[in-house]
Design goal:
The chain contains 6 helices and 8 strands. 8% of the residues are buried.
Length: 180
Amino acid sequence: MKALVYHGPGQKAWEDVPKPQLVDGTDAIVRVDAVTICGTDLHILKGDVPAVTDGRILGHEAVGTVEAVGSDVTIEAVGLPATFELAVELARPGGHIASVGVYGKPATLHLEDQWIRDITITTGLVDTYSTPTLLRLLSNHQIDAGRFITHHFALDDFPTAYPVFADAADTGALKVVLTR
């Protein structure tokens, strides 16, 4: 299978990687059907996230199909506490994190690791009052969410899509989507 692999600041490659295997009971394999490129990807590629080292397969903000799960897997719709904890890890010094919503589980903030990074965290609740209306408007094609997607690529076009998103000032890229 193909993946975008980070090889240090400014170095990425679209290359063959081994297919994932279930190793632990908590593992899951998800076939990616669509993915976007995020500003975080650009920071990683610039070398702004030292925790990302040579050989890391990049990609997030994906939609996919679960193909296999380990014996101990519980699939949750959204793993918000883990998302918050990852956001804190990835935030640049002086960065801002907006944590919106209700988790239902604890989210750990390790202040002993973060105090010197000068990050700002804001929280709030999601007002879901209008969600049914929004979904109805979308399904009735009264709102075109596709207007936010400025560029479409095939999944194999990562090497072309990244520079388009990275040069948004010249390409006009707002949201880049890659699909199977």
